[in-house]
Design a protein that fits this description.
Helices cover 58% and strands 9% of the residues. It has 293 residues and is an alpha/beta fold.
């Protein structure tokens, strides 16, 4: 039902009770707000009982209201403008206890990521990265920070890492022109999904490369071309993309790869420590920390 929930409601509308029709009309006109309301709150806003809202969900074919709410959230994930996201955040978070609410929402996203990430895909992604001729990494807009993070650590482990800069579509394709069988492309995209990232993964897939998609939902446009799908929750916090759970998943991926290359990695860091010390890259703790002050 997912992305067609509004049309499904329209088709079922004539069979609904008076109260259920009121719910249907509210959702059709205010789906961006309805997606984040509890059954009790939705009933209060519309002027019907909570039980009427639950029966409405059953009437549409869902196991309960949570199923309907999840379908609405999936539908709007890539539809909301930044202005609408601000309005939703005001409804969800308000102006009090912002720190507690935002951090607790991120904790919940990490919990759901632990539950939903497929272990076989996670381990398969690690093994494909270890065997890759070349590792291409792409992420646009806010996801670009995650792509840079992976690239930084993978460059310490491998000599074949290519971070794709997505300034223009033409320049992006020039950078991935030679992607082929034996290569791996890691694509990162969260709502609102980047067309450039989707196009790059489609190109890599069609040229025989192994594709790893790091995204929030099986409905994400980059999943269809992926060999391995790593799901990380990234819901909106106002106009800001919450990337806490995706970053945690990426940390796990980097650690997983690193553990498979532990001996080689030790040698690399021994060399780096000498370089960092010789060229005074880092402040020395004993020179900067004065105990007792």
């Amino acid at each position: 039902m997912g992305n067609n929930i509004l049309s499904h409601i329209s088709k079922r509308k004539e069979h609904l009770s008076k109260g259920q029709k009121m719910i249907a009309e509210y959702i059709q006109n205010h789906y961006d707000k309805a997606a984040f309301l509890t059954a009790s709150k939705l009933g209060s806003v519309v002027g019907v009982s909570e039980s009427t809202v639950v029966r409405f969900a059953y009437e549409l074919g869902y196991d309960g209201y949570p199923g309907l709410q999840k379908a609405l959230q999936e539908m709007i994930r890539n539809r909301l403008t930044s202005v609408q996201r601000i309005d939703v955040a005001n409804e969800q978070i308000g102006n009090e206890e912002i720190l507690d609410k935002v951090l607790n929402l991120d904790i919940e996203r990490i919990r759901k990521t632990i539950e939903e990430t497929n272990r076989d895909d996670f381990n398969g992604a690690i093994n494909s990265i270890l065997k890759a001729k070349n590792i291409y990494i792409i992420g646009s807009r806010s996801a670009g920070t995650l792509a840079s993070f992976i690239s930084f650590y993978f460059n310490l482990m491998f000599t074949n890492v290519k971070l794709i800069q997505t300034v223009t579509t033409a320049e992006m394709f020039e950078q991935i022109l030679r992607v082929s069988k034996g290569d791996v492309m890691i694509g990162i995209s969260f709502p609102r999904y980047s067309k450039q990232t989707s196009s790059a993964l489609n190109f890599a897939h069609n040229n025989g490369a192994t594709v790893i998609a790091i995204t929030d939902s099986k409905h994400s446009p980059i999943v269809k071309d992926s060999d391995y799908f790593l799901q990380a929750r990234s819901d909106m916090a106002s106009f800001v993309d919450s990337l806490v759970a995706p970053l945690s998943l990426i940390n796990a991926l980097i650690v997983g790869v690193g553990l498979k290359k532990s001996e080689e990695l030790k040698s690399t860091f021994e060399k780096l420590e000498k370089i960092w010390d010789e060229y005074e890259v880092y402040e020395k703790a004993e020179e900067t920390i004065k105990y007792g002050e």
